[in-house]
Design a protein that fits this description.
Elements (H helix, E strand, L loop, with lengths): L1 H32 L5 H26 L1 H20 L1 H8 L5 H8 L2 H13 L5 H19 L3 H5 L5 H22 L6 H27 L10 H26 L1 H5 L4 H14 L5 H17 L12
Subcellular location: Membrane
Membrane topology: Multi-pass membrane protein
Organism: Marinobacter zhanjiangensis
């Protein structure tokens, strides 16, 4: 039993490391296609593709668990609203009117937001060693974002896009806490399929309004297919599955600390694919983040029994 618990935790932490890697790639792709694919269109078609890929694999299980789905669909709908329908849509919209530095800075407050909401809604407290880990990791994030220069951090200005990012962070924090609080006895893949399906349904009116009155959509081409496939499969299906399991296994506040890795991974990906320079502050900040993660994840609790 102890061996199973250790293996489950190891898988949870591995998934929580891959999640920010995929999300960092999501940010790089979004910035790359912002002039060719409108943000709402990117969000909507991302989830349509993810559902097309996922549904043939999970439909038999969804069908078997349908009585449970029927009883709990309002809860799944609420979770889908704050995750699939809201978070990335708000992030994509934010990317059109604010800088990548500001997005990374605001996104790095997710652990603080989740810890605050977990305390307010669940009464979940952090130990002193965890608070130290949060502080060390946050220092690493700020070092990466500020590129080792205090003046760069102080001189940041805020735009309407920053407000969208704040809304995105709040949305993800609510989702993470509710995911722990709302007990839904479904298998992981059934839950993910319903989460994406209901989130996509919620996005339909938003997409139609944007298509008809705002952006006019985009033209599908050979250059637009790869980024759509990437954001659907990696930061879409895989990252959400990893995050859901990680929150269940280690709790929302501890899982949220791994979001500190997003700006580190984003810096490396930008260096590899966009030719941006990898500076000393990336290495120093990354080291601080890893130390913070170690402090925060020491002596993790044993996972609960899963509903399915």
């Amino acid at each position: 039993m102890a061996r199973y618990a250790n293996r489950s935790l190891a898988l949870a932490y591995t998934g929580l490391v891959l999640t920010p890697l995929f999300w960092a790639g999501n940010a790089v792709v979004a910035r790359g296609v912002v002039d060719s694919i409108p943000p709402v269109s990117l969000a909507f078609w991302r989830w349509v593709i993810a559902l097309v890929v996922l549904l043939p694999l999970t439909f038999p299980k969804v069908r078997r668990e349908w009585p449970v789905v029927r009883d709990h669909w309002p809860r799944i709908l609420v979770l889908a609203l704050f995750s699939v329908a809201s978070f990335n849509t708000l992030l994509y919209v934010a990317a059109t009117t604010t800088t990548a530095i500001n997005i990374a800075l605001i996104n790095s407050t997710i652990p603080i937001m989740v810890a605050l909401l977990a305390f307010l809604l669940l009464g979940e407290r952090t130990r002193p060693i965890q608070r130290l880990g949060i502080a060390v990791a946050l220092a690493g994030v700020l070092m990466v974002i500020a590129q080792g220069t205090l003046g760069r951090l102080i001189s940041l200005s805020f735009s309407p896009g920053d407000l969208f990012m704040v809304a995105a962070v709040i949305s993800w924090g609510i989702f993470s806490v509710l995911l722990r609080r709302l007990s839904i006895p479904l298998s992981a893949m059934t839950f993910l399929t319903l989460q994406i399906a209901l989130g996509t349904v919620l996005l339909i009116p938003v997409y139609l309004i944007d298509l008809l009155l705002v952006s006019g959509g985009f033209t599908l081409s050979a250059s637009s297919i790869p980024p759509l496939l990437y954001v659907a499969i990696f930061p879409g299906i895989l990252a959400y599955a990893f995050w859901n399991h990680g929150v269940w296994a280690v709790g929302p506040a501890r899982a949220a600390i791994f979001m500190y890795l997003v700006p580190v991974f984003a810096s490396v990906l930008a260096w590899l694919f966009l030719g941006e320079r990898l500076g000393w502050y990336h290495l120093a900040g990354g080291a601080l983040i890893l130390v913070g993660l170690y402090l925060t994840t020491r002596n993790p609790p044993a996972p609960r029994n899963h509903g399915a």
